[in-house]
Give the backbone structure.
Amino acid sequence: MDISDRCEDLRDVRWRREGTRQVETAIDAERFVEQVGFAACLTDSRRPGPSLYVAVCGRRDAVMPRHVQKDPEASLTWQIKDDVVRRGQIYYGKLPRGKTMFIAPRMIPWFHAIWGMRRAEERTRLSPDAQAILAVLRREWEMATSDLREESGVVDRKAFTKAIDELQAAMIVVPSEVVYLPTFTYIWTLAVGRFPDALRKRVRREAALREIARCFLEHAGMTVPGELARVTGLSRPDAGLGNRALVAEGVATMPARGVYVAIP
């Protein structure tokens, strides 16, 4: 068995790609994210990295069907996601490059060091729409989408979505609940209200890149060119810096350009 085969076997175990270790409940999902550090929600085997949907399916070759509304595994994944968001034990939000991810609390400081911003930077780095929404949430703490649009004055749906995505990408705002009746809506809140200690912890950017790379490599066994960047949303140069720091530390090897293997 070559190294790539061994790593795929390791991923089967760590990423719950086995029928005997499927994720079936929100508590299962929280344990899964705590173990792997971070995971996507509804990606399938065509995208690299740990995924809640693949863990619910419990198989390496899981592919999201075209009509997800009728698929029991996709429906269960969506239900579990809603429960995890409601419980508030795991960070959930849309990071830069559209990466909607679950993040274990222990990994939040490292991700925040890459994408977060200090309050003093908000006026220069956030758009006026994002600042208007943030001002309302800091006053009201949490609010449903329709009410937040009205209170902030960002009534255009496209502009509101863009601003909310901007606030999520900066790890300032997160969904705290999903409501389906009488109409579908998200309830939005400040991330620091749910994870105050993790988001207030200051860490160096270089350390953050190393620890994100370490977390992925520990559970993936190896990473190939571009894989860490695709999973996390990091740029390729930043992903390379993180991986090379592990080589310098002596916990990984680089047998080929862009290929990093964890040392057992």
The longest helix spans residues 72-87. Strands lie at 38-40, 91-95, 99-103, 142-144, 173-179, 185-190, 222-223, 252-256, 259-262. The chain has three domains: 3-107, 117-170+172-200, 205-262. The two ends are 16 Å apart (CA to CA).
